[in-house]
Amino acid sequence: MTGNCLKGSRPLLSFDPVFDQDPYLSVLKELFIQTFGTPRYHPKSQPFVDHVFTFSVADNRIWFRNYQVSSSTY
Q: Where would you find the membrane-spanning parts of this chain (predicted)?
């Protein structure tokens, strides 16, 4: 189903490299990891990734995007 991630699936987190350069942004990066990340071997998590959360910095703002990962078969 296009546009919907499955319940229990884990997101892949992607960060802009600037999050490692600024101390304030590195704290926010850890906050986002703790908030949106799935603990390893969590009993209710699924063993696949079907969406990506990306965090980037532009115009002095943090931009969050959600991308769907779909496997197309031809």
A: none
| 74: three-class secondary structure by DSSP | coil
The total of structural domains in the chain comes to 1
Tens digits of pLDDT across the chain (74 residues): 466 666 667 788 999 999 999 999 999 999 999 998 877 777 776 667 788 899 999 999 999 998 888 776 55
Report yes or no on 55 lying in a domain. yes
In 1-74, which residue ranges form alpha helices assigned H by DSSP?
23-36
Does residue 58 belong to any structural domain of this protein?
A: yes
